[in-house]
Specification:
Strand content: 5-15%
Shape: elongated
Order of helices and strands: EEEHHEHH
Distance between the termini: 64 Å
């Protein structure tokens, strides 16, 4: 038996079945939103902390270890901006609570250090090319 994430009722879980974390009453219908779009409240604070720690490590890597070349300046600028935003977000969340994320948003948030950095580097060098023309 396992507790439902939405209503708290217990429901049986089969041995070899995929568990959605929801009981039969709370599962979306055939035309409802898929399970990965359902909001989950578990471990939201840990998710934000994990992303913050990853960006702090990237900031140290880009700022101190790399030699100041092609990736160091835009990489450390990106990481510094995200760390500043997340620190402010932690203060705001202390008063308003952490937002409830869907599973898709949680995955996107965890992959932010990868795709966010790539998008920022692309934007940075595109702006440099527009500014300097080379």
């Amino acid at each position: 038996m396992k507790k439902c994430q939405k209503c708290g009722n217990e429901y049986p879980v089969g041995t070899f079945s995929l568990d959605a974390g929801l009981c039969g009453h709370c599962k979306p219908g055939f035309f409802g939103a898929p399970l990965w779009m359902q909001p989950v409240q578990a471990a939201t604070r840990d998710l934000w902390r994990t992303v913050l720690v990853i960006h702090v490590i990237l900031f140290v890597l880009f700022g101190l270890i790399l030699d100041g070349g092609q990736l160091s300046l835009p990489g450390s600028l990106y990481c510094q901006t995200v760390v500043l935003y997340l620190c402010v977000r932690f203060v705001v969340a202390r008063f308003r609570g952490y937002p409830i994320l869907t599973k898709t948003q949680a995955v996107a948030f965890l992959t932010l250090p990868g795709h966010g950095l790539v998008l920022f580097l692309t934007l940075f060098y595109w702006a440099q090319r527009l500014r300097w023309g080379t």
